[in-house]
Amino acid sequence: MTSPLELAYRGAHLDPASRSHLEELTASWSLLADLCFSDLLLYAPLERLAAEPSGREQRLIVVGQVRPTTSQTLFEIDLVGEVIAGAELPLVVEALHTGAIAVGEQRYEPGEGHLRLECIPVRCSGKVVGVMTRVWNPSVGRRRGTLERVYLDLFERFSVMVADGIFPFTDDELPGEHLPRVGDGVIVTDERGRVTFSSPNAVSALHRVGIRSATIGSTLQGVGLDTTVVEDSFASRLPVVEEIEGRSEVVLLLRSIPLVNRDEPTGALVLLQDVTDLRHRDRLLLSKDATIREVHHRVKNNLQTISSLLRLQARRIEAPAGRTALAEAERRIRSIAVVHEILSRDASDQVPFDEIVQALVRMARETSVGPYDVTVSVEGELGEIPAESATPMSVVIAELLQNAIEHGFPEPAEGVAQAGASGVAPPRVELVFGHDAKHYEVVVRDNGVGLPSSFDIDETRSLGLSIVRDLVRTQLSGTITMESDPRTADGGTTVRLEIPAHRSV
User: Fold this and answer.
1) What is the pLDDT of residue 190?
2) Are residues 119 and 193 in the same domain?
3) Structural domain of residue 448, as residue ranges?
4) How many CB atoms lie within 10 A of CB 368?
5) Is the dihedral of CA 467, 473, 477, 481 positive or negative?
6) Is residue 310 in a domain?
7) Predicted local distance difference test score (pLDDT) of residue 419
8) C-beta of residue 130 within 8 angstroms of C-beta of residue 42
9) How many CA within 13 A on the CB side of residue 86?
10) In terms of domains, do 225 and 310 share one?
11) Within 13 A of 26's CA, how many CA atoms are on the CB side?
12) C-alpha–C-alpha distance, residues 249 and 251, integer Å
């Protein structure tokens, strides 16, 4: 289903560069809404702008809306996608045509009274492509104090930057969800990096790193913060993010946004946040992740040790059946160890199974004791699969490969043409993988002797195939079919597995 925002942009008369600029603005403008304690709406023209405001009726479409976290909102509904006649928003049309900030009153709905509007033209590459409108009710909101006056002044400085095409910044990385916001703490500096204002939350954050002296009039370095974040933002004319660790292992995250006028920095807005608890949780998660990887590494080593012991034991057994049984057990353990080796590198919930497949193919070739040199090919991929499915899937594929190589191509009877001889297709096993959002599909196909006519996988007495059948049906919640088609030129056996991508527990 197409979102209202996408529909709004489709309806707006915007070229790709203009749309990209407006999208970058809406990715950054929660900062502006918090600074002005007001709702912000972003309008774009629905048709090409007429040469004169008095020309053909201009229609506007809302392509963005943001509510402040520092004050109450005036709009309980989402207005994105609304089409409004220009006659109902003359201040917006004025800003769109003149390219100048327009301020005035507007009556929105009966009973709402007169709302104040500040319409800021959004300029991109020298042309006005939209209008950012601040909407507020003077009779409702916060009482004016020093903090409110400073924040509103910052908003006006950003408004000029928006109208000049400076904000949002070109080549700036879009703010992440964990970057500090206005409510976390604000420091304002002048063009020389000296602090002119610190919000109460900023003062509290500085106290936690041991800074109790007055910050006004000093630089951040002057009060004891080991950072050049303001100077770096002045030099690059771009926001700069830096993380510093103070005393008592307190960690502060700083984001310095340069305030630019005529391409010259006139000051900086520094947002700061105490992220000590967040970083502590990150370290705990890293430690837990490392522990899990170490567990997988040790399990892999233990399985390899068991595998080696079984190999040694097999060499001491004279009975062929006993040696074969131990060899098969050793191979199954090795296939499980492959999974733990992958998880020891990245103990995530998803496993890159294609790496495991390559290891299983190599293992099948190395341990093959059949009379032929069988070619094994792999086509397609499964991508990443859930970690809990990786072990049973590995054992299943290892068993099917080994079964195809050893039993699909037995020693030929006297007088029977040998596989690979002149006129006889060379022996091969094909692994074919596929997947969609709901299923994984695995096909193991060989051109060997095929299955007996009476074969039934539910009645099989083969230990390997019994293991495969039970793992597919119980641990993987999938289906398995095995069939031979003597009518095909190559004959052979085809095993098909269908595994749900999301198993029900």
Assistant:
1) 95
2) no
3) 368-411+424-505
4) 17
5) positive
6) yes
7) 53
8) yes
9) 22
10) no
11) 20
12) 6
pLDDT tens for residues 49-66? Answer: 655 554 457 889 999 999
Beta strands in 26-113 (DSSP E): 39-45, 59-66, 83-85, 102-107
| Percent of the chain predicted with pLDDT > 70 | 84
- Measure CA 42 to chain center: 27
User: Is 223 inside a domain boundary?
Assistant: yes
Which of 86-100, 174-188, 289-303 has the highest average model confidence (pLDDT)? 86-100
Sheet holding 251-261, edge to edge: 195-198, 186-190, 264-274, 251-261, 240-245
Length of the chain: 505
280-321 pLDDT per residue, tens: 776 666 666 666 677 767 777 877 788 788 778 888 888 888
Residues 34 and 138 in one domain: yes
**CA dist list (Å): 149 to 36, 145, 252:** 9, 6, 26
pTM exceeds cut of 0.90? no
Q: Whole-angstrom Cα distance, residue 324 to residue 496?
A: 26
Query: Helix, strand or coil for residue 360?
Result: helix
pLDDT, residue 289, reads: 67
| pLDDT of 156 higher than 90 | yes
Domain membership of residue 168 (yes or no) is no
Question: Which residue, of 222, 248, 274, is where some domain finishes?
Answer: 274
Q: Is residue 72 part of a domain?
A: yes
Q: What is the CATH number of the domain that holds 64?
A: 3.30.450.280
Helices (H), 374-441: 387-407
Tokens at 116, concatenated:
């104040």
H or E element, residue 278: helix 276-316
Tokens of 488: 């095909």
Q: What is the mean pLDDT of residues 25-29?
A: 92
CATH for 457: 3.30.565.10
Maximum C-alpha span of the chain: 103
In whole angstroms, how far apart are CA 446 and each of 159, 379, 411, 454, 479?
70, 14, 16, 19, 19
**DSSP annotation string for 304-337:** HHHHHHHHHHHHH--SHHHHHHHHHHHHHHHHHH
329 and 389 belong to one structural domain: no
- Chain-centroid distance of CA 234 in Å reads 31
58-87 confidence digits (pLDDT tens): 889 999 999 999 998 988 899 999 999 988
For tokens 């088609």, name the residue: 485
